[in-house]
Amino acid sequence: MKAIYRTLLAVALTLGVSSIALATPSGQIWIPSTDAKGLGEVNISIDNYIRYSHSATSGSNYYNAGVTVGVSPLEKFKLEIGADYYTDNLNDGNSIYSKHPLYFNFKGAIPEDAFFKGMPAIAAGMYGIGTFDRGVNGNTMSNIAYGLLAKTFPVVGRISAGGYHGAEKNLGTDNNGLLLSWDRTMSEISDKLWLAVDYMSGNNSYGALSVGASWAFTPNISLLVGTNFYNPFKDANGAALPGGKPTITTQLDINF
What we know:
By secondary structure, this protein is mainly β. It is about 10% helix and about 45% strand. It has helices at about 1-15, 95-100, 170; strands spanning about 40-50, 60-70, 80-90, 100-110, 120-130, 145-155, 155-165, 175-185, 195-200, 210-220, 220-230, 235, 240, 245-255. Strand 10 and strand 11 (about 220-230) form a beta hairpin.
């Protein structure tokens, strides 16, 4: 009972101090991963995406706080669900992201070697499930469905590949693409250091190349610092629209 109370208290404090925030499924830097929480495991994340430039054309800063919980009792099939509070820095009453900040996500995953030696990890899920849709007035329903395969190789690290499909009314007509990533624990330096690079293709606001490094201060607390370079994309008439200036991201993860 005390453990449950401490968990709920930590969640309340975390959300209380984060006036703006976007939780996502267990992931790399920007894209999801094939990892998933086991039964009763809880992750609290506080993510910030801050533009390098403050010019009017740079795009918004984004802030995210989320909770992800493992709900499957099976070791070979994990299932996690999450809720996120996500908003931007346009707190002027006109931004739909500030007015409708609640999002949801879920993922099912099978770990590597689950049923035979050499079997890749498999994951599928959905994130960016928003709660606001008013047609021409905008919507927050990206509803990105994805699938991933991942395999860990000696020395090289883990390679992941997959694809995604999002809601056209939110992402536009170019609403699908590839998901690619590499990640590795740098045990030659320290088992606490983890590096990753990931890429999400597509001429939409989600497309980006990201690089970053994470340091585990304790077995349950880690901090990732990285940067995101957003894909340039075009509107329906072929006019170039920038995905926004690059952002620096910090991602604090607390696991219970």
